[in-house]
Amino acid sequence: GAVVSQHPSWVICKSGTSVKIECRSLDFQATTMFWYRQFPKKSLMLMATSNEGSKATYEQGVEKDKFLINHASLTLSTLTVTSAHPEDSSFYICSARDSGTVSGYTFGSGTRLTVV
Amino acid sequence: RKEVEQDPGPFNVPEGATVAFNCTYSNSASQSFFWYRQDCRKEPKLLMSVYSSGNEDGRFTAQLNRASQYISLLIRDSKLSDSATYLCVVILENAGNMLTFGGGTRLMVKP
Fold first, then answer.
1. Per DSSP, which regions of chain B are E strands?
2. Which candidate in B34, B35, B36, B43 is best for mutational testing of the A interface (most A CBs within 10 A)?
3. Tens of pLDDT along B7-30?
């Protein structure tokens, strides 16, 4: 299957700062990427769907002004956590549709964000 | 009610044991079903698909019961390396083929 490269794998930032997480599709074009958040011992929760060249679609309860998503090219989607707070500390994972996999999706390796 | 529910565990079993996990889903229109494995602080990785006819892959057997809306995963002859969180995942194909995850069941295999 295809590979989705996600960076950074972990980041620690101070409260009030912004953090950008990148997901790149390698060797394939991802017109749609999905961003998930996972709190400890909890399920992956879909935050938003990122569409190349258009605005992202956010799930209910996710603040679009806080979690900025940009999908300016077919191989790159970014999630920026703005004015981060300790409660934003979580594991963020991106995913892209991949017809080459059984489930139809490939995941990035995830980013562990800690806000202090 | 959660769309996909799992017993969070943990299931603590000795090496060589057989262990089974169940998962229930609420939407009867769900079409595709999978078990994923997630190691600590890692991304989920597809373990196997689940079919009504059953699906076996080595020590792992998955089963779907559409009438009761539950999915099972059986692990035989548990290994230490099986320790992980197992996620039940459902796809609702008339809703954009989105993945819906259960909360996961944690398995700890001990020597």
1. 4-6, 11-14, 19-25, 32-38, 45-49, 55-57, 60-65, 70-75, 84-92, 98-101, 105-110
2. B43
3. 999 999 999 999 999 999 998 888
